[in-house]
Known about the structure:
The chain is of the alpha+beta class. It has helices at about 10-20, 25-35, 55-65, 70-80, 90-100, 105-130, 140-155, 165-180, 185-190, 195-205, 210-235, 245-250, 270-285, 285-300, 305-315, 330-345, 375-380, 400, 420-435, 475-479, and strands spanning about 40-45, 45-50, 70, 135, 350-355, 360, 365, 370-375, 440-445, 455, 460, 465-470. A hairpin with a 3-residue loop joins strand 10 (about 455) and strand 11 (about 460).
Amino acid sequence: MADLPPGPRGLDLLRTIAGRRTDPVRLLVDLRERYGDIVHVRVGDTSQFLLANPDDVKHVFVDNHRNYTKGPGYQLLASLLGEGLVTAEGETWKRHRRMVQPSLQRDRMHAFVGLMATAAAEESQRLSALAEGETVDVFALMMTLTLRIVARTLLGTDLGGREAELHGAMTEVLDHIERLSTSPLRFLELLPGGSRLRGIRRRLSSLPTARHRAFREAIDMLDRTIFEVIARRRRESDGGQGGNDLVGSLLAARDESMGEARAVSRPLSDREIRDEVMTMFIAGHETTATALTWCFYLLAVHPEARERLRREATEVLGTRVPGFEDLPRLIVAQRTFEEAMRLYPPVWRISRFAIGADRIGRYDVRAGSVVVVSPYLLHRDATLWENPEQFDPDRFAPERSRARSRLAFIPFGAGQRMCIGAAFATAEAQVILSTLCHTVAFELLPDRGPPAFEPRVTLRPAGGMPMRVRRLTSADRAR
């Protein structure tokens, strides 16, 4: 008989199933509190294991990573991303990783940081023109700004004011995928004999309902935008050689992994480039914007930290915009961003599918099980972090981080499948925080309580993040 960890049974299992739809973040916290660092949830023929211990996470992500592929949620995400780095597996993932990696290396980052700084300065100027005390949705603002940066750095183009349209299409697609992942039919498929329902769900998903049409139209609009850029860049570059942005790099990329043994090095097809660009659009837009939104919320709650950030930007930059060479000195900005991702990790749950049977700690995991890791749980674990609910950017100082497990902080994942854009996102956050803090301070609305979660693909704030804009005077900046 398999040695299984504790978990909900009977009525508690039914409450767990209901909690997956109503408040999934609270559900993970409750399961951890009631059952410990590893929890077993069985629904029908499907077993799920929730891991909340760095050693167990290391086993899945690092030590025995070959036994684990992306979880079932990524299959739904593939309807948007195709076979990009987030969803691809096996040799396809390895090949794409080799070909995408050079586009995010140090020499490219120099140019990227310049484009980030220009976009941040434009946003700073726009905010400075607003009326004092005007209310803005910081979440929407960050979504627009990061999308503009992604377009310029990855596509080599400006969106011409279409940021809201493209973001709306992405939101429609991600919301549709979230609805599918939590639908009653998807749950019923987990019950004995439920596999027969998969065909029904597929047929239902092809019905021409308003939601399905909106989903397809959103996908089509995103595809048209990306394929138009690819076609234009091919024409401009005379066969696709060169370019400082992601599209230019991918057009020029050749897979030389077999060296001289390969007679012809094969370039990426337009579809493969589309999949990688779409992946970077989502990973480099939604996640960073969400993290920055929580960042500005925390700075509003802790104005002394906001003032410290502003002083650093003044000392390092004066009145100029950041450059690549400034990043190592923007330490407060980096630690502020890391602490925001600790408290509010944009990717709050990560799932893996066990190919073969395994043993995690002292428990058996059979083949076909789903393993769930929650950065949210790890990042707020009192055995790993001192005063985990407290906002403290200095906890990321080297002297305080040295003894901490590397798997205690995984906002970008871990192991081979760690996010390839981690350095890009961190640099973008440093640039945006250090630029905007010269011009404005975002302040909490007096009649609004702490924001609730809207846990979708990312950990969004429910209802956005409306905040009041306070323009900084010369006296503020002189302090």
